[in-house]
Amino acid sequence: MKRQEFEDTALPHLNDLYRTATRLLADSTKADDVVQDVYLQAWKSFDRFEVGTNCRAWLYKILFHMVHHHRRKWFNSRMVKESEEILDQVAASPEPMPEHLTDEEILGALDRVPQDFRAVVLLVDVEEFSYKESSGILNVPIGTVMSRLSRGRKLLREQLEKTAQSYGIGKGKLEGRTA
Amino acid sequence: MKLMQFGDSSCARIRRYLDSYINNELLVETNHEVLRHLETCPACAADVETRTRIKARLKSAVQNQSVPEDLQARLRAALREESRGSFAWTRWASAAAAVLVVAAGLWFELPRWTRPALPDLADRRGQDVFIQKVSASLSAVLKVGLGDHIHCSIFRKYPKNPPSVDEMAQKLGPVYQDLVPLVKARVPAEFRIILAHQCGYQGRRFVHLTLTNGSSLLSLVITRKQPGESMQSLTVSDHASGVAVYQAAAPNYDVAGFETDQFLAYVVSDLGARQNLQIAYALAPSVHRFLAAVRS
């Protein structure tokens, strides 16, 4: 049965998609709605899916399309973009001490990274998609994936540093550092 | 071969490569250069360690996020509904439903003495005929729940102001009064309980909670099983934490049901199949546990 084939192929990726959607939207209720829409859309398009190709990447591509659509609907705004100049200013930030931070604090820091950069960090560092796969999912050139990843990681480190410092962790730890 | 540099400028340059170094993305020559620098620079070596730790902690933090237990079940149900396609409602049923919605709205809003009589539907015989027509496509065991929903939630003369929680508890009686907070905690926040009581229809007794989100009515209807009654011959929509949930569509209404040894329970609404089933899944496990603990 075709629906059974779809469920067998697509549902194993449900938890990963839900978790990624939750971090992209920073809202589990909206993530729930979006993920359901992703699967309903994928089911409608399943005829066009080539069996044997990367189903996970295909679902993620639909997810990012849906997130973009929903963000415009919910926030009536385009995705946040920051200028390269601003990002370069924060790029020189020192590293945090993540061993002292909880999961919630780490996720909170991730949520404060602008979405374009957060998306690439999630795809490459968490979901372990290749640059080429991430490029296809986000529909941007590989060079853009690489530059956003580099800046996204730096922004995340800075946010983690701020979080750590707000708890009195890590102050002065950079003494003797050379960068 | 590039000459090794020492000092701040060397560290700054090497640190631009560290993420790529951690991910094994550097060319062999650059990789060697970074390695040689790290052997002589404790600060950059510590930086590598921290970045590696951040990456691992980030991945585990994201993957440790909980996923709703019922997400997969709700999704399977939604896919089933999607593949089934839209319901073939007849024109007469849609028209009748529209009349009912308008009539129910008027009934709810107007003071008791000004409530207009509902032609054909206000009298008991008119109600029964309507209920028979609407539930004609359902199995006998599901008709029970839909019948009481329409009889009580649609035709009943509601008080203008919903009763207090204490009044609802009193009308439900000591055995069932805890259903009010139990249900309230598990339905979407926009729903409020407007009626909770025990009622009768077609010679049966029901425990009945009616909820509204302002535009739709939803009922949780519970009744004791009569000899031979069971939902097990129906096709299971899915299981909610081990409780089999069944659902069928009637014109303008969806009926989801589940059962214990002694009770039949129904979630009935005009919300559409997907949302009705989602609420049934949310209620089924705890209501099932509650009813299983009720002594005969």
* Number of continuous helical runs of chain A: 9
Terminal CA distance of chain A:
60 Å
Beta-strand segment tally of chain A? 0
Name the biggest interface.
Answer: A-B, 44 and 36 residues
Task: Provide the CATH superfamily of the largest domain in chain A.
Answer: Winged helix-like DNA-binding domain superfamily/Winged helix DNA-binding domain
Secondary structure: helix percent of chain B: 40-55%
CATH C-level name of the largest domain in chain B: Alpha Beta
Q: In sequence order, what are the helices and strands of chain A, one letter per element?
A: HHHHHHHHH
Counted by DSSP, the helix tally of chain B is: 11
DSSP strand (E) fraction of chain A? under 5%
Summed over residues and divided by their number, the pLDDT of chain B gives a mean of: 80
| Shape type of chain A | globular
Low-pLDDT runs of chain A: 76-94, 171-179
Strands of the widest sheet of chain B, in order across it, are 1-2-3-7-6-5-4
Structural class of chain A: mainly alpha
What would the principal axes of the Cα set say about the shape of chain B? elongated
| E-strand count of chain B | 7
As for the CATH topology of the largest domain in chain A, it is: Arc Repressor Mutant, subunit A
Provide the CATH topology of the largest domain in chain B: Phosphorylase Kinase, domain 1
Indicate the structural class of chain B.
alpha+beta
Helix content of chain A: 55-70%
